[in-house]
Amino acid sequence: MSFKSLGLLPEIISAVEKKGYTQPSPIQQQAIPAILKGRDLLGGAQTGTGKTAGFTLPLLHRLSGKSGVLRALILTPTRELAAQVGESVSTYGEFLLLKSTVIFGGVNINPQIKRLRQGVDILVATPGRLLDHASQHTVDLSQIEILVLDEADRMLDMGFLRDVRRILKLLPSKRQNLLFSATFSKEIKKLAHSLLTDPVTVEVARQNNPAEQITQLIYQVDREKKREILSHLIKEQKWQQVLVFARTKHGANRLASQLEKDGIQSAAIHGNKSQTARTRALASFKEGSVRVLVATDIAARGLDIDQLPHVINFELPHVPEDYVHRIGRTGRAGKSGEAISLVCQEENKLLHAIERLIGRDLPKKRVPGHGIKSPSSK
Ligand code: AMP
Fold first, then answer.
1. Which pLDDT does position 207 carry in this prediction?
2. Whose CA is nearest to atom 1 of ligand 1?
3. I need a labelling partner for 207 at 20 to 30 A (CA). Which of 41, 46, 153, 344 fits?
4. Mean pLDDT throughout 337-363?
């Protein structure tokens, strides 16, 4: 199947070809025709499946006829994801006349007001800052024709449900709705039910199941040995680009500076860091001057890093779904990846909950040369 056969405009196909994509990914093959027809859509897809182009390409196609009025709103949970989606909109819309902008919190609101005033067709936003604009009447949502809720599960995890509901009230009732989520809890199903009318459901990879091309491994370790073992693995295996998950902001900071002391260039990325610091850390990681990025769940959500080969869980998440999100950072768009979790005895309960969620036992190993004082029970 080709992008052309999906019926997209030549201007959009040129942009996609320029980006080097040869054929639509599975989610794109399913989502694009449905969205072009004007249908509501429920998309079960993690980052890495090509879901952004899956909704952006048909959205651009549908809006292309006229411009000058804000007609599409894309809501994302995090600033990073908003910035990335905004980039995709610009890239895929390069040969169209549509204008887009991105608004999120943590940065000065005035340049955003200025850009909105100049007129945009497509707005990518995080909920809080969008509501700020709405209350200051610096954004007009009354002509929205297409709404996208991207990573809706994370939006709820981050406590944005009320904000989202307030935003929905500001939109015209007749519109096309697209909801994407990697996992489907009761709350997500409820939100989808209230938001979508007769939706087409598209799903790639099994629900709540990590992408198949990811190799998952558990190293059973002593808690106090974790840092030493992580440094050892990074050096021994010569990993060049590693995303490490820590549970707390403080833990992320501490780990990054300890790794630095071990001679491994590292940076931490979390909610207490300024937007500029986060963007800088991500850029250094992407271009290779930072080898390890230590992130908390919230900060890492939606990071678009091509072909990330290694994801490490320094600590297991308390919410099993977060495990699925975390390891979704590797093995992207058909590339293989490795997700390693350093699990101490105290975390066995969390591990069992994860195994229950994904429906299978994960392979367990010891780190060669690192004896374990207290072997875990599994
Ligand atoms: P996403 O799931 O939207 O975050 O996309 C994951 C990655 O896949 C991004 O780096 C995209 O640039 C890339 N991508 C999206 N669609 C395609 C495609 N049809 N062929 C190859 N790569 C793609």
1. 38
2. 50
3. 344
4. 90
**Residue 30 predicted with pLDDT over 50:** yes
The residue whose CB lies within 8 Å of the most ligand 1 atoms, and thus the one to mutate among 13, 178, 332, 335, is 332
Other beta carbons within 10 angstroms of residue 339's beta carbon come to 25
Q: Average model confidence (pLDDT) for the chain?
A: 89
Query: Which residues on neighbouring strands pair with residue 176, listed in sequence order?
Result: 146
Q: 91 CA to middle of ligand 1, Å?
A: 12
CB atoms inside a 10 Å sphere around CB 207: 11
Find out whether the beta carbon of 52 lies less than 6 Å from any atom of ligand 1: yes
Is 199 near ligand 1, meaning CB less than 6 Å away? no
* Tokens at 50, concatenated: 């090509």
**What type of residue sits at position 354?**
I
Question: pTM of the prediction?
Answer: 0.66
CATH 1.10.1760.20 fits 4-203, yes or no: no
269-293 tens-digit pLDDT: 887 877 788 888 888 998 889 999 9
pLDDT value at residue 378: 36
CA of 84, closest atom in ligand 1: 4
Residue 184: what pLDDT? 84
C-alpha 21 – ligand 1 centre gap (Å): 8
> Residue whose CA is closest, atom 10 of ligand 1?
306
CATH code 3.40.50.300 region(s) in the chain: 4-203, 214-377
pLDDT at 76 over 70: yes
- 24 Cβ below 6 A of ligand 1: yes
90 CA distance to ligand 1 centroid (A)? 15
- What proportion of the chain, given as a percentage, has pLDDT over 70? 92
Binding site membership of 328 for ligand 1 (Cβ less than 6 Å) = no
Write down the architecture of domain 214-377 according to CATH.
3-Layer(aba) Sandwich (3.40)
Smallest CA-to-CA distance from 335 within 48, 22, 85, 27 is with 48
Q: How many helices (H) and strands (E) does the chain have?
A: 15, 14
Residue nearest to atom 23 of ligand 1 (CA): 50
Q: Is 48 in the pocket of ligand 1 (CB under 6 A)?
A: yes
22 pLDDT tier (thresholds 50, 70, 90) = confident
**Inter-residue contact 139 to 116 (CB < 8 Å):** yes
- Nearest to residue 78, comparing CAs of 157, 138, 184, 135? 157
